[in-house]
Structure formats: C-alpha cells, structure tokens
Specification:
Blueprint (H helix, E strand, L loop, with lengths): L1 H16 L3 H4 L60 H4 L32 H10 L5 H9 L11 E2 L14 E2 L9 E3 L6 E3 H18 L4 E4 L4 H15 L1 H5 L15 E8 L4 E3 L7 H9 L5 E3 L6 H4 L7 E4 L2 H9 L5 H8 L11
Parallel strand pairs: 1-2
Antiparallel strand pairs: 3-4, 5-6, 6-7, 6-9, 8-9
Helix pairs in contact: 4-5, 5-12
This protein binds zinc ion (ZN).
C-alpha cells in the first residue's frame, strides 16, 4: 500500500510540478540528453529497476557532416549558419541505406517514381550525389520535404495546421497563434489532445490494459507555441542551444502544438520512479511497435533515423496520424514521417507538382 501511495504521490508531483515531464525531470546531466541506444529485444523481458545515474557511454549518435547544402538556387540561408555547436552538427548523415542505391544510376529517369516532382529535379540529383548509398525512393521523398536544405533552413510556414497529416518538423513551422480545435483532456489526465486523438489514445490504452494488464501513462500532450518557446529557452539555457536542439523543438516546430502528439512514460513498480527514457524497455513499447498503427499512432523519432528527424531517439513520443495512414506507413515499412510524407505527399505538405 505504501508503495502505491508513494507511486501516486510521485505521479501527482510530476504532473503538477513539471511543466513538461520531459527534461524537467531529466536525469540532470548536460551531456546526456537521452540514454544510448539499446537493444530492442525486449519482448517479454522483465523490466529491471533503473540504475540511478545511468551514464551515456557514447557521444551523441548525431555526428557532424561537413556538408554543403546541395541546393543553391532557392536558398534563403544556404550557408552553414551555425545553430550553435551541437545544432549545426545535426545536419543529416543520411547515408543509411535500404535497397537500391543510386550508384551509377544517376542518369536513369527519376520521373518513374510516383513521388517525383519535376521542379525538384536538380535538388534530387544533388542529394543523390551527396548520399549515393541511399535508396532512390527515399532520397526523392526526403528532398520533397526539404530535408536537403538542412534543419531550420528555408522554413515553410504550414498553411493548414488543422490537417490530420500536418507535417511539422525543423523545416515546417506551425503558426504562432495556432491552437487546435477540439482539444480535450485525455480521460484520467489533465493534459489535452484533440478529441479524435484523445479517443484513439484511450482506445489504445484500453487495449494495452486488456492484453498486457499494464498501463500506458501519458505525461505530455498539447503544448502551446508560447509554452514551447519557454521550454526550449529553458533547455537551451541549461544545456546550450546546440544540445537542446537534439531533443527539443523551437517554438512552432513542436508536434505537441498540433494536439496530435503524446509522450508516454513508464513507472517502475519497484520504486514508483517515472522515467520516460526507459520506455523502450517496456512491454508497452514492444506492444506499440506492433500495434500502435492500428490505433493511428506512429513512433515519430526512431532510434535509427536520428539523421532524418534531427532528434535523438524518443521512444516515448507518439504521433497520431489516423489508422489508415499509420497502417500504410507500417506496412510499407517506412520508419519516418519525413519519408512517408515525402513519398505520398498528402495533407498540408507543399510538395505536390501543383504546390
Ligand atoms: Zn514529445
């Protein structure tokens, strides 16, 4: 009983005192914004209590790429304007391959791809040259969402932020005054999602409870532009802007402003300690990798896509895009919303031929 009381007290404390559970309870260290990547062979494995003060054993997986941004004609800020030491280092190392590479095929017509956009032709060529091991379909998709410009370069203002498939990242910014309609508290919490996303989350949490007997704990959901602005400033002050860039979004660039995103965490039964960085070691996480798409949710910042998303692995951060698209993305084995959006260019993305 004491343990339960303690656990509840801890949760209440966190919910009430932390403006963002996020890194306001983050294990303090300036140099370890997240734990190092861990094996995901976790299904059924009993979760062990966290070791306090887990140390990051490797430097950030984000490595500096001494790139030149390939595009040169539409540049607003093409030069490698420093975002601060770590921020600039976020420029993609996009060489992870899957399947076909571009080597020696650069003269083939790219137009055969369904997501080819003629106005991007030059940029495709430059990008493929810069990342010759990348699958062509992925290269086209990433150029379609302006990944070739580099983070926070050539920022596009999102025209229709209420669209379910709204694409928000370091290159696409939500209006400062955008507040989603239909926000409501998730049942049992005082944090909000849009009604559709909240219902989907509740259904998913019920399924996890029914199938695993475990709870999905939501800890952060909708955040306003101003809130995110203050949050980022706080992190930048604590860790330096460059480090903050690897785990926190600038105002207008956070998916949390869409009301479609929820952060989860895990409570260690033995200690009552709430730690979101251990979420990847939970049965809930393993279950979500298999089933979250059935409820419309996608993992937004996967472990192996740091260079694409620009964020360190966030096993806790899940985005609602609807069952149809989440399932399509899952079945296509596309791991980032960047590639998915650039491949299917639906919703508000300005990457169609017409746009
Ligand atoms: Zn988040």
């Amino acid at each position: 009983m004491k343990r339960i009381v303690f656990a509840c007290a801890a949760l209440i404390f966190l919910l009430s005192s932390c403006s963002d559970i996020g890194f306001s309870i983050r294990y303090g260290a300036k140099t370890e914004p997240v734990l190092p990547p861990q094996s995901q062979e976790i299904k059924g494995a009993p979760v062990a209590p966290p070791k306090e003060a887990v140390k990051q054993t490797e430097p950030s997986p984000v490595t500096r790429e001494p790139e030149e941004t390939p595009n040169v004609d539409e540049a607003i800020e093409i030069s490698d304007e420093s975002l601060g030491e770590g921020g600039a280092s976020l420029i993609p190392d996009l060489s992870v391959t899957q399947g076909i590479s571009a080597g020696g095929e650069a003269d083939n017509s790219l137009a055969a791809f369904g997501h080819y956009i003629s106005k991007n032709e030059e940029r495709y060529r430059a990008f493929i040259e810069a990342y010759p091991d990348m699958a062509l379909t992925k290269a086209l998709a990433l150029v379609n969402v302006n990944a070739d410009y580099g983070y926070y370069k050539n920022i596009t203002q999102i025209a229709d932020p209420a669209e379910l498939l709204v694409f928000c990242n370091k290159n696409f910014q939500l209006p400062a005054d955008y507040i989603p309609e239909g926000l409501r508290n998730i049942a049992g919490y005082s944090i909000m999602l849009t009604d559709t996303a909240a219902t989907a989350f509740e259904d998913m949490a019920a399924a996890v409870k029914a199938e695993l007997g475990l709870k999905l704990i939501a800890i952060s959901a909708y955040r306003s532009f101003d809130y995110q602005k203050a949050l980022f400033a706080r992190y930048a002050k604590a860790d330096g802007e460059g480090v903050a860039e690897t785990y926190s979004a600038r105002a207008g660039h956070s998916e949390h402003q869409t009301g479609l995103t929820v952060d989860l965490l895990h409570m260690w039964p033995s200690t009552g300690s709430l730690r979101r960085e251990n979420f990847q070691n939970t049965e809930q996480y393993a279950w979500m990798l298999e089933h979250a798409h059935e409820y419309g949710f996608i993992l937004r910042y996967p472990e192996n896509d740091v260079s694409v998303t620009g964020y360190l692995f966030e096993p806790w951060h899940w985005r609602y895009i609807g069952v149809e698209d989440a399932t399509r993305m899952h079945e296509a084995e596309i791991t980032t919303f960047e590639e998915y959006t650039g491949t299917f260019y639906r919703g508000t993305t300005p990457v169609t031929e017409a746009g």
